[in-house]
Each structure stands twice: as C-alpha cells, then as structure tokens.
Amino acid sequence: MPGKRGAKVSFFFKVYIFIVIFLAFSIDFIITFTIPFSKALDFMSIIIGIGGVSRAGKSMLADEISLLFPASSVRIIHQDNYPLPVENIPKLHGRLNWEVPESLDIQHMLKDIRDAVQNFQYVIVEGLFAFAYPDILALYHVGFEIRIREDCYYRRKVSDNRWGHEPEWYKKHIWEAHFSYRIENNQSFAVHILDGEKPFDPRFLRKALAIGK
CA 79 to CA 119: how far, in whole Å? Predict the structure, then answer.
C-alpha cells in the first residue's frame, strides 16, 4: 500500500509540474507575440491624400484635418517641399514647368511618407500631384480632392506671390494642367470631392475619417 500511495503522489506531482510548465509557456507566448501585435495595431497609420489645383485650399484642409487629432499624432507632408534641383526641372517656353510630376523628387517624398508611417498615427499628404504617383496612391486610406471654378482660381491667383511674377499664359497652363491629375472615385479607398469655395465642414470631415461625432 505505501508503494501504491507513493506512486499516486508521484503521478499527481508530475501532472502538477506539467500544468505549471504549460501555463508558464502560455503566458510567455502571450507576452512575446500577442502584446507586440496589439501595439502594432495601435500604431497602424491612416494615410490621407489631399489634391486639387493651385489655390484650391489643400494646405488649409490639411491643417484643419490635423486639428481633429492630437498634435503629436499627425505629420503633414507638403508636396512643395520636394522640388528637384532647378537644372532637372522640365521647362515650358523657357520657364520652369512646375505643373508636371517630373518636377518633384518623388523618391524623397515617398521615403518621408514611409518614415512618417512608423512614427505617426495620421499622415496627411497634400499637393497637386497627391494622386499622380501609383506608389503613393497605393498607400492611401482616404482621399480628398478640392475643386473650385475657374473664375475663383483666377481671383485667388492674383494675390499669390509665392513663385514671383507669373505671366497670364502660365496661369492658364496651371489651370489646364491640373485636370490631368484629378482623382476618380473608382479607387481602393474612399474619395471625397470637396467644394473649395465653401468653408470645410468639420462634422463632414469627422464622418469621412470615421472619427467620433
């Protein structure tokens, strides 16, 4: 009898040790794999594209969208910060032609977008060519295109001195060129067309971005 009792105790002790080891391994697995995965989900970025003609209000919309989120969670990528060296920019009638995608250092811009995704929850990309590059287009979760009428464009262009004097023929070229870079609704992400002649409605922006009420 003592031998059998000892054998039983030994058996249950082995089962107990097995359960303890199993639980320890399970907890370690959860800590090692599940928590980092949940953190990755927490930091998954939302990438927002904003396009439209010059003076449509792209930068303004980017600023207004950024105010919907904590400041530390947003990075705005401005297309105008990525010009190629002047000698590499195509020309039109002897003038630098900024209205073609070939005027931008797209690889630098794409790198900054990818870097921003690692550190910010919301990344906003704004510019005339926001929807012109397939590699960037593939990153978006939502897009906004701002449209204005031609007469509104010309009125606003009068006070635009950022690029120095622009002859009338070039202003017309800017207007006509932007139609080549408009985005259509048949994308893999939601596209919202906004009227740039009216104030942007924060309630609509919140709904479009699916944040709160």
Answer: 19
